[in-house]
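Researcher: Please generate the 3D structure of the following complex. Treat every line as part of one assembly.
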Amino acid sequence: MEDRIKQIENEALEAINSAASIAQLEEARVKYLSRNSEFMQLLKSLGTLSPEERPRIGALINSTKQQLEEAFLARRASLSQSEQQKKIESSRIDVTLPGKGIKRGRLHPLTRTMEEAKAIFLRLGYEVAEGPEIELDYYNFDGLNIPPHHPSRDAFSTLFVTDKVLLRTHTSPVQIRVMEKRKPPLAIVAPGRVYRRDTPDASHSPVFQQLEGFLVDKNVTFGDLKGTLTEFTRQMFGRDRNVRFRPSFFPFTEPSAEVDVQCILCNGKGCRLCKNTGWLEILGCGMIDPNVFKAVGYDPEKYTGFAFGMGIERIDMLKYGVDNIRLYYENDLRFLEQF
Amino acid sequence: MKVPIEWLKEMVKFKQPPGQLAAMLTMAGLETVVEPGNILEVDIIPNRSDCWSVRGIAREVAALTKSKVKTQKSKIKGGSKKAAKVIRVEVKDKDLCPRYMARVVEGVTIGPSPDWLKERLENVGIRSINNVVDITNYLLMELGQPMHAFDARLIKDNTIIVRRAKAGEKIKALDENEYELGKDMLVIADAEKAIAIAGVMGAANSEVRSDTRTVVLESAFFDRVSVHKTSKFLKLRSESSVRFERGVDWVAVEEALDRAAAMIAELGGGRVLAGKIDKRAGNRKPKVVTLRPQRVNQLLGADIPKAEMMSILRRLGFGVSGSRVSIPLFRATDIYREIDLIEEIARVHGYHKIAAAMPNTSFPGKGVDEEDLFHQRVKEIMAGCGLTEAQTDSMVGPKDLELAGLDPDKTLRIANPLVVDQSCMRTMLSPGLFKVIQHNLNRQLENVFIFELGKTYHPSANKLPDEKWVLAGAAVGSPFLSALDKMQVDYSYLKGVLENLLSALGVKGVNFTDAGHHLLQPGRAARVEGLGIIGELHPGIARNYGFDRPVCFFEIDLSALFKKAAARQRYAPLPKFPSISRDVALFAPKGVTHRMVTDLIRQTGGKLVEDVYLFDRYKDSLAYRVIYRDPARTLTDQEVNARHETVVKALETKLNARIRR
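Model: Done. Output below.
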């Protein structure tokens, strides 16, 4: 019997270790280690042995069984690893092939810049207001202290629908519309398209976009205007960039100012972009003219306020170095997809 | 305006080098650069009529450098013969000409100007003509007062009449062009004809010529609006009209006249006749405005001492007595209120000296505008769906409209368009997108997926036209990153984009129904109930744009979408009990749509039907999966089988569908 055990052990080990696949290994397991295998039947025949032989043979069978089971587990581990390895090898891909899925869409650069500018004021507590693009001349001019036949009307080169109806030349009419309806305090930004009868060139487009803003309350000062627009400019163009306020003229503000930011190309040293001045003009602003308050029925002694307006194309052109305004309305994907 | 430093120095003393002077002027509101030849190029803002002269700039320089403008006196050796003997002036329309002055110089020899005069004019961009004309131009530049010189012989009956033109009256101006005048325009005339367009340009019929001996000099104050209208209507701008339409100095009218007469006598060898004609409607005196120093500081948020404020005003030429400030007549057009004085103080004091602060206000707004935020969300969703945002011109041309089969007569027309291609306001967005697709296809791009969110404009019976917010999308080619994916956009792809948009906005139950639109290909397009249209571009329209591949688009009323989306979205509890699914496969007879099948399944399946979806489709063979669930308990197989059998029966009987068992 001992010989037979030894013989089975050798055969089984041979079968386990030479199994080339999990399936062959499983065959070997069934043959040598399953309940009905010859080896397991030997356990059952222990009863036929003499009481003296029984413990010795029993121990031998058990140790052999353990040895075979260990060999089986070891072989299975090794086989499954190599089979996994084979699977891995056979499923290798070229990871540099293009990805699947749809190509993302982009927001228009003017949308991005408009939102960026608007968001700065929203964070400061302003709200958004809207007005019609096709406007009454009263809101576009008279209400804003621009009387008929005043030379400053010419500066706007207006497109008309009728004598009294025009394509708004700036977003400032929204000031009048909001103030007519509401009482201070007010802190508003008004985005939108505006139109001028300008011959198109690299920096002029008959349609363009502005962001208007104004704040009215008791005791609003020119210092507040400076603080607010300095903060805006720093958030928009960078905190370490110098800002200056230069006296200017707008019919609807007094005192009026242009805000210049240190040239973003040459950092103020002087270059072609800033025409060697070191500064770039980015927006116009001022304290709201008392005549504007009178037009909407506010008492200019009681309330003061400031207003500002900026061209979104200009800001975007400066920020991203775009050299032709026409690109914004041409919608060439090779342009739009750069953003 | 060009201001030679050397000329400026004759009028005001200053030590600053040109670059520094330019910077000082710029920061006081007159943008100035230094040009070669030590000439300042000053950009005059519209309200500063007083700065259109070397003296105007000199005054500004004096105020900024704490210096003084030199006064120039004219020495006139008048004889005994009176000017009034040679010329009579009658001002008929005093409203348009509140002051008209004239002097006469006899025995003048017309000839070239001396070199210094020629050179000065040349430096400021004016061509030298002869000594008399050059002198009037010289003083125009120096004092800002336009003048005109007539040959006395050519003034019929020695009479100058200042009157409105007769309708249709014609005049040949010094620029050699003939102008037809309107009856609102002011002319200078003699007894029979117009001899100048008042404030704009003289006429050839009375100009000074080489043999002129007696010169009549005109110096006047014309109505700003009148000159502006005339110059604009005639499209005729001159150094004169630019100054008159902004407003000239009442005092300088006389000062310039005297200087001119004296200079002509000196350089042209004539005699100035005694006396000067001065026809005026009353006299003008400086207006007095009260300045409250605390108001200045309150408005500026500054702490400027009263003495400094008054010093600034004095330096600018204002009269100051206590808190009463008298406005010199050369600033009469732009300064007449306290706020105007505050601006003067602020700009000369220096904006940079006013400390930046933040407003102490309560900011009443809620921060965002719902509709504006909604627009932003829609744009983000569109971009997420693979569409790139375009922004097209709101102004289009009849040709653009006709390409898209739209009637230009039904659009809002611009009365004075720059070009005909921008003479109509768009009524739809998608035609603009078709042009964008065309533009990109013409540049060898193959896949164009774009959208635009913008306004359309519609004629209306109201005071103002209607403006509507619209969303449109258009696409051609493949939406995929990789060219390995061959799928090309079609109706269902773009519908998927729209479905994702609706779902992202929480809009449910929007029906897509068969509908016709002239831009859409019948049978491959739909009306999006209550919102707009979607589909493949009609082949006839596609041909107009030269498209040889299917183009799909949609156009949606954004205000309607905003209203549908505005409802608040609420949480639904997650199911506690399992669902059971059953499939049904059928052959749909002609005319039976997917929508009819799902509607019937939901209707007959009742409340237990949680979801129905199509999971397989080959030609008319459709396979649906129905998900049954009761939120309150676990369903049994038997009851689901029974319910599903009812559904299948209904499909057989009501839709005539053959069921694949």
